[in-house]
Target: AB hydrolase-1 domain-containing protein
Amino acid sequence: MKLAYALLSVSGALLAASPATSFAPPPLHVTTKQSSRSTSSSSSLQIMSTKAASPNMPSHSPATSLPNQIYKWRGYDVRYQVTGPANADHTLLLVHGLFVNSDHWRKTLTGLQALNDELHNDDSDNEKKSIRIYAIDLLGSGWSSKPSKTDPIAQAVSGENGRFTDCDSTCYREANPTTTNKMRRPTKIRSASTLQNTPLGTASGGNRLATSLELRHPLKSPYNFYTWAEQIADFTHDIIHSNHNDDNQDETTTASSSSSSPPKVTLVANSIGTMSSLQSILDEPQLFNGCLVINPNFRELHMAEVPFSSLTMPLVRQVQSLLRNNGHGLFASLAKPSTVKEILKEPYAVVDAVDDELVQVLLDPLLTPGADDVVFDTLSYSAGPLPEQQLS
Model:
């Protein structure tokens, strides 16, 4: 029943449990920043695309009142929000879950800013620790670009490229060679595309063995945890570190040079943001302090998690294919405020948190062109890393 619910409740992909805390932001200037990161010898942004974020994106988030800012990543638009003092003591990057967006962190963003304001106004002698908070829309989610998975540019930016030792020349369509050769990937942990006899945990705290763990997206889609992991790492390098360095250049200080070094970032992840964040830390640990995980997604549709997979996965694949090819009407019928509100009440422990504002800020980006294709594409992602494997 759980498997059928996960496959057929398309908008049920909104079901990341609430990253609730109650955490208002001072007005910021809207800016557009391009990636300047050089991971090998060239910028990661020399690939250009015509796929931009939706022109319907509001200038400010209606949930947080923060400006919606755009990061130009590998030719695509990535929306993000930021609040908190420059050069704060701590830096957080909030990574959302399945088919939601950075507005899902609305209470966290506003609540942490309120905490910053409280610390700023506190005249006691207690040590004050300010926080800079970023929240990002992953590629294909929220107000970020949603390219077709078959777009040569999207294929070229996939984080699975160059990831697997047995797949560099056999597993992927060749993208435009001129375009591909201009792009360099971040550091990444490489492995075979299928892991054998991988030890995993159980819900009861026991152990089990996954005899075959497939890491590649079955559709060769760019919407995979490796792409999002590289997006997180590039954003940390290009935006968070760049903002820190820009602020330092604007200040006159007598502090030692070490005090102005880019901050290590703490990731806060929900649902499928967990696997993306953990993979980013595995790939480039020098960028991060660690990851706070809130209600991770345990990949119930992963072939290593589906019971009796040799028997059930063919049926699962058929349903996934049916949804991709014929499910757009179903998606349109479910993508209504009343339906989304009822779906969201399922994972939310505090049902009153599912208010009209939450429903609207999560639903509006799902009505933009390409969003339904990303939904079905990701529902077909019955492979990729598992959190137990990443933590082993």
